[in-house]
Amino acid sequence: MRGTFVDGDCLWVSPVSFAALRPGDVVAFHSSGKAVAHRIAKRAGDGFLTWGDGNLHRDAAPLTRAFLIGKVVERERGGVRAAVAGGPAGRRRAGLGHGARRLRILLLFPWAPVYRLFRASRLMRLLWRPRILAARFAGAAGDFTKFIHRGETVACWIPREQRWTCRKPYDLILDPPTR
Fold first, then answer.
1. Of 119, 76, 86, which Cα lies nearest the Cα of 20?
2. End-to-end CA distance of the chain
3. Spatial contact of 85 and 73, defined as CB atoms under 8 Å apart
4. What are the sequence ranges of the domains in the chain?
5. What pLDDT, in 10s, does the model give residues 155-164?
6. Helix and strand tally (H, E) in the chain?
7. Tens digit of each residue's pLDDT (9 = 90 or more) over 14-28
8. Whole-angstrom Cα distance, residue 21 to residue 15?
9. Which of the chain's ends, N or C, has fewer CB atoms near its CB within 10 Å?
């Protein structure tokens, strides 16, 4: 839900009947053992198709009554609560966000080969040397490492899954850990 929520937001979820939901509402539901918050795109048979505001595509599986947790009514950031736009207003907001992301991709697409060549050359490592903090965490689900620059997580390494995520342009200077 990039664009609507940021890391660290606390979401306030209210119980709601499945029949009262409508396209544009943000709902919390169970998906693959996790709690997920996405916006309802449209009705699909007995359920709803959902779509994260930060995603380019709708979720593959429709939301059914059995997986619903509730409707997200507010988000809290820095101790300040704000209402979450739902219904037609939420739909318009999400539509503008999806359109802006698609336009950005269209405009940046021609530069992708140049970016890949630049990344492969490793030249940026000589020119840009930001102070990046590597913070290792150990939890019940396993160890992971976050790479933090100016208070924001820019990359994450999860060794047990061999999964590396890295935001652009930090992928020009960072590689996954070798061990």
1. 86
2. 32
3. no
4. 10-108, 122-172
5. 999 888 888 9
6. 3, 10
7. 999 888 898 888 999
8. 11
9. C
